[in-house]
Each structure stands twice: as structure tokens, then as C-alpha cells.
Amino acid sequence: DDGTCRRCPPHCDICSDDRTCFKCTFLYLMLNGACRASCPMEYYEDMEEGRCGQCHPTCGSCSGPLEDDCETCSSFSPKLYKGSCLKDCPTGTYYEITAMECQECHQTCKSCIGPDPNQCSQCEKGLVLDPNTLLCGVQVGS
Question: Where is the Growth factor receptor domain (predicted)?
């Protein structure tokens, strides 16, 4: 206003005033006009653009802006499967609580409660579930 130069905010190379930055110094990332050393949850580090980019709304944390760039999930779509966050695990998978993601059932199971062949709840076509062992196999003589 009065023709005097003023210092930009910390870690900022180009600014309009002492609060609004347009370009951050090397290795700092822009978020809402401020420069940060790292991005908060629900944002990813876009090093090419030098900014924090917003994750897809289903992600809690991510590596990019797309629906399948999720690393963790939001509470609305809590189940991670192949980088995407879903409300429920897809058919042929089960929810592994410690890994916090959907994992594949054994190849004989159509649906399951765990990864082992004796954790099937439904069998693939042509196979029959043994109610005692919970294994899927071919039906033996009727």
C-alpha cells in the first residue's frame, strides 16, 4: 500500500501479502494460500504442482486424486479393496480387520469369512459346501 516491500510468509517465494502465498519454496507444499512441509489427512502431496491435492471423498488418506488412489478409507466407505474404498467388500472377498481391507477368499469359495479353504460360506458354481467342515468340494454320490 505504501510502496514498501514486505516479507512473504515463511517458506513462501511469491506472495500478495503477509498471509497469502502463491508459490512455496522448494519441498514445501501449498494449501489454502499457506506453505506446509507435509499435507494433512484427506490430502496428498502433489510434488509436480508443489501443492496439497484433495483426495477422493471416500478416502481417508491417498496417493492421488482418483477413486482408486486410497491408502485408508473414510468412515462413510470404510472397506479398502484394490485402492478403492467401499461400503461393503465385493463378492469373493472378506473384511480383514487388522489389515483394514477386503482380501480374497480361497478360490473354491464364492463368499467366505476368512482366507482358508475351510472358511467358505458359499461355494463357487459346481461345488458343494460341506456343513461339517465348511469346505467346498464336488458332491460325492447321492
Answer: 18-120
